[in-house]
Amino acid sequence: MPHLIQGLTAVGRVVQRALALSVAATLLSCGCSRPPAREVSREEAVVWKPLGSWSGRGNLQTESFVGLTGSLRMHWQTKNESPKGKGSFRLVLHSAISGRELQEPVDHEGVGEGTEYVAEDPRVFFLSAESSNLDWSFSVEEAVFGSRAASPGK
After folding, report:
1. Domain span holding position 25
2. Are the beta carbons of 78 and 112 closer than 8 angstroms?
3. Residue 153 lies in a domain
4. What is the torsion angle, in degrees rounded to the nearest 10, for the CA atoms of residue 148, residue 149, residue 151 and residue 152?
């Protein structure tokens, strides 16, 4: 019987060693593997690309400009009204192909300023400024749409 007990003890040691080696191999393979890929979240972004700016007194027709997205933003300002109470400013968006009026984003009396947004089909545009008795300035920007990686805290 002592041989049997010694044999079982030897088998038990072999099983323990095999189990220990298996656990060690598993732990080592987990420690050496590549970390799981992080999912990069994306958020929509809009960048405003300048298309032109103009200033003057009286009437003006701008040169043509291309609107690739048709999403436009116009900043405008009027000042130096003379005589007081007699100034007017009108800004009209036209198709540069047909010349037809598309939209009138600004129709303002007197001194002021603002930002107007226009949504049109992409095309070639021009603007006409109609003004009396004041100085004016305006700029046109186009929305460029895309996406960017979100900040780590999001």
Report:
1. 1-36
2. yes
3. no
4. 180
Query: pLDDT value at position 127?
Result: 98
The CATH number of residue 83's host domain is 2.60.120.380
pTM over 0.85: no
Question: What digits encode the pLDDT tens for the residues 31-75?
Answer: 555 666 666 678 889 999 999 999 999 999 999 999 999 999 999
- List the structure tokens of 109: 């009396």
